[in-house]
C-alpha cells in the first residue's frame, strides 16, 4: 500500500541486546543465549485493545517457556513494536526485526493489510512470521486463490482460519438461522474488511438472500449520519459490516439511536469487548463471527486466562490471546529443535521456518498444525451475539467453502 525506505541506522534499533555476541549469532547473558520473539501489532490507537491482547498472549508463552526451561541454554525475551494498524509502520517494524540477529521469529501482525507490507521483508530474510489473526485468503494462497492457489511466502504462517470460511459461515447463519433476506453491506475499504464483505455477499446471494445496497466508510470515520439514512431507507433487515470495531461500534449506536432496530453483523475484527463498552445498550442483539471456539470454554486455556488476569495485562485476550500464545509456542518449539545448548547456528532462521512447517501439537486454543500454504488446519469458527451486555457464543462449527 505504501512504499518506504527501509534503510535503518543502528541507532534506530531498540531491540534486546545483552552482553557480547558470540560467533554463532546469539547474545550471551549469564551463561545463556538470549533469543528474541518479536511481536508486531497495533499497541496504541486504532485496534489497540486487540493488539495488546496479542502482545501479552505472546508474553505469557515466553514466560512459561523460560519458567519450564523448554529450550535449555536459551532465555527468551519479547520485543513488541507498535504498527498502529498502519501498513507502512508494519513494514518498518519488519525491517527492524530482520536487522536484529537475536530475533528468530515474529508473531503478528493483527491486520491483513499490514501483513501485505511485511511478508516480503520476512521472506527475503528467511525469518518466520506467524499471525494469530490475519484472515485474508490471499496472504497464504495468492491473489488468484479462488482459481489457482499459490504460496508466495514460505516464511508466513497463521493460527487463524481464513475469510474464505468466515464469510460463508456468517452468510449461512444470517440466511438460514436468523432468516434474514435483505442485507445492507458496508466495508471499510481495507484488505480485511472489503475482502470479508465480498465473501459474505457471494455466499449470502448464493443461499438466496438479496443485497439491499452497498456502501463504504473510511477508517477513523465517526459521523455515519448519511449512511444511517441510506440504511433506514433501504428496507434491509440486517447490516453486514466488513471492518474493525473502531468504526462499527459507532455505526451501530448511531443506527439504533436513529430508530433503525436491525442488528449489525460483523467478523472477528468486530469481536471485542471494546465494541460493547463503546456502543453500550445499542449493541444488544448485534453479532460477530470469530476464529476458533470461545477460549473461556477450553480447559487447556484455563491457566493462560488466570495468568493474564493475575498480571492485570491490558487489552483483550478473548479474541486472539490464545492463538497468539500458540503462535509463540510453535516458534519456541521450532527454536528448540534448532538451537542446542544455547548455540545458534548461522542458518538458524531458515531451519526454524522448516521446523514450523512440521509443527504439530495441542495448543491452548486447539490443535496447531499448518498445511502446504501455511494455513492452520484448525477450521473452527463461532458466531457470537451480544446478550445482556456480553458476547455469547450461539453457534460453533466449520464451513465447507467448496
Automatic annotation (TrEMBL):
InterPro entries: Leu-bd (IPR028081), Peripla_BP_I (IPR028082). The keyword Signal applies. Residues 34-389 form the Leucine-binding protein domain. The keyword Signal applies. Keywords: Signal. Belongs to the leucine-binding protein family. This is Branched-chain amino acid ABC transporter substrate-binding protein. It comes from Streptomyces antnestii. The lineage of its organism: Bacteria, Bacillati, Actinomycetota, Actinomycetes, Kitasatosporales.
